[in-house]
Amino acid sequence: MLIPIAAPTRTRQTSARSRSLGYDFALLGLKVSESRVDVIRRAASHTAARIQRVASDDESEAAQMLSDLATSTYRLLDPRRRSKSRERIQLSIFDDIDFELQKGSRAPLFDSNWNALQVAAAAG
Fold this sequence. Notes:
124 residues, mainly alpha, 6 helices
């Protein structure tokens, strides 16, 4: 369930390492203690789209905001950061989508032809 919430304010002194998960929940517009993976991913996707619409004029600001979003999403999906065992368990359950994402992450960035093209370009 997405809760409409204003974007949290962030100061230069606040780092991703030192802030609590409260900032991360607020950034994604989630209620505190949300631990359903699909809900967190969907909220991250909606937030990324909103950032791209709102900050389209300032690319460096948009890049920083998207970086913060990626960090917050990672932190919320990390069961080690949760104090309640129910949340840790829920975040540790895998489904078919997780296995598909894992397969995609192991795919090479470039196909085998790309390396041959680079070698040919360097030689000639």
